[in-house]
Structure formats: structure tokens, C-alpha cells
Amino acid sequence: MTRQDIRVALTIVALVLGLGWAIGYGVGLMTRPASVVPENPPSEALKSPARKAPRAASTEGNIRYPDYEDVYVNDYADLLDPAAEERVRDRLIALYDHSGVEMTVLTIDNMGMYGHGGPIEPFATGLFNSWGIGNAERNDGVLVLVSRYDRKMRIEIGAGYDRSWDSRMQRVIDVGFLPYFRRDEYQLGIEAGVDETIRELTGAYPGDWDMGTAQRGWSWLARAVDRVGEWVLSLLLVPLGGVALWVRRYLRNRDRPCVQCRTPMLRAGEEADDEHLDGGQRLEEYLKSVDYDVWHCPDCGHIDIHRYKSWFSGYGACPQCNYRTLSTTSTVLSAATKSRSGRKRVDYDCAHCGHHDSEIRTIPKISDSNSSGSGRSSFGGGSSSGGGASGSW
């Protein structure tokens, strides 16, 4: 690759990176919530609460509210498969550990089976207060209630949120939940809606709290594309991939003068290439880890050999001969468990020079969540004054 090639490539890379950062930062600023709940992770005193049995079902007039078996997800309408239920629970545990906010998801078949035949708002408020969702002092709990056959849902929020949060929860319902519920895709809707609710509460999606503004912007874009459909992603990737291939082809095929006599050089064919390559280079081409182009000057006979690494090769550079002919294999010596780490041997073998090396690596223990959120078995005694938003489909 000539100096001009390098300058062109670096300029293109800089433009792409700069444009990507600007897009992400701009989207991150534009989609950032006006305010978020303060970070208030649970104190050490709350990290290992005494286990309590779930509270019994309570009654209010003719209404008998369902009890809870879990403080995060109670899928009584069977809208989630076990894997999805675990994903939602993990996100709600992470929210609690990050902010101290108690958020719970409840699905039921209908409200009539609990003695309620009216609108969903008073039922959700009464259920929220019956369970005591949220911190008793901050009243920052959140209840996501889905009544499948009533085709209604409600996000009920604690009394600690001001009235501006009602419209924000309405946006979450309209954007995160209802588009999926209208297609009877309840599992997708609950997962997407929970993510949107957490983002509205904290300013970031689950797991994105430590990201910068630009990274959060790209995270939002990725989820927006996922909501619209994979075909939109294809529309974006096809032109970007085309530009990348065009740039690579341009840099590889463009006319180049001879560095000695300035005569335009000619590129040799694949068979003619091999006459000018050594054994290691020919092996790299055979393994498809590197492709070579040989350019020759028709006047002075000068030869230039240009090397192009494969984007998807499984071979690395050998420390002994420097050819990309080094393969890597791993052998587990002892498997990791929750109580101890494991060990594996990694072998490196070069197909060109025969170099061999190996090393022993540690396999981390299988994580067993012991965070404060995962140990909770009861709510904090919070209450709601009827704030939140509702939706139907």
C-alpha cells in the first residue's frame, strides 16, 4: 500500500468515525429524558433481607387482589416463556441494584376473575398499595400490569413521582408495549416495554448506565431499528457494506505509477502471482488468510507486491516466521463451576514453520447472582396516589 493509499484510507476512516460519533451523540442528546430518578442503590443493610413468605391476597370491598410469588415477575397469564421471564427478572434486578427502584411486572387473564369489572386504573392503584411496591419513604415503585383478555394495561407509579411522569409513562406504553400487543406479540412487547420503562426512569437502557452520550445514542438507534424490523437494518447495512467494498476495491485496483520510472504498472494474474511469492506467501493464499497482488513495470521490470489480509480468517500471525499461518485450538482441562474456576490449554501451531506453543488459561467461575436485588422477597411498603398511564389494544 502506497503513502497515498494510506492517506486516503485514513481520511475515510476518520470521516466515518467522526460521522458515527456525531450521529450517536446527537441522538443521545435528543432522546435523553428530561429528568431521571437519582441513583440510589440499596444500602448494605438491605442487601441480605430476611426471607419472608409472599403476602396473602388482600381484599378491598368485593375485589380480591392476587398475591405475589415473586417481587419482580408474576406471569399469571403465561405470556412469557421461562427464558424471557428470566431476562425480564434480570433487568428488574439490575434496575433495583442501580437505582433502588422497585419495579414489578404482573400479567393476569382478566380483572373480572378478581371481582373487578370497571376500568383498570383503580384496580392497578389498589393492587399497588396492597402489595406496597416501592420504598416507603421515596414512594418510587413502578407496577406494569397487563390484563390480557381485557386488552388493557397500566403502568402505575408511586406517589413520589410528579404529574409530569404520567405523560412519560404514556409515551412508554404507546412506543414500547402497544405496537407488539396489537399483534398479540405479548412476550416481545413486555420485554421491549420494560426496557423502555427503565430507560425513561434512568436515562439509559438496562446495562447501558456506564455508557457515554454517543454510545447511548447508538444503543437507542439499534433498538429503534429492531422495533421497526430487520428490513430497515438491511437497508442501512447494504449501502454501508457497498461503500466499504468500493473503497477496498478502489485502493486495490487503482492505477499506480512505478516508483522508479513513473511508468503505469500492470497487475499480474493469479497464476503469475505465484512466480513472485515465496512458500509462506503461497501458503497464506492457500489458507485464505492473506491475498497478494503483484504489480510489475513493463519498462524497467520493477516488481511491487501488495498484501491484503482477509477480514474473516481464523489464522493469526506466527511469532516465529510472521506469516498468517498460525492456528489456535483450545482444550478444556477442568470445567468451571459455581464454586471454582476451570482451566484450559490453548495450543498454537504454525502450518508454515512448524512453530508450536501452548499456555494454560483460567476459566472464570460460573457466576451465581448474589446481588441485593436477587435476595429480595418482599416490597418496601410504598404507595401510589393514582399516577401513571394506561393503554388498550
Automatic annotation (TrEMBL):
Segments of skewed composition (Gly residues): 378-393
Region of interest: Disordered: 38-59, 363-393
Compositional bias of kind Low complexity: 367-377
Domain of life, source organism: Bacteria
Family matches, as InterPro entries: TPM_dom
Domain TPM: 73-198
PANTHER family given in the database record: UPF0603 PROTEIN YGCG (PTHR30373)
Entry protein name: TPM domain-containing protein
Source organism per UniProt: Ruegeria alba
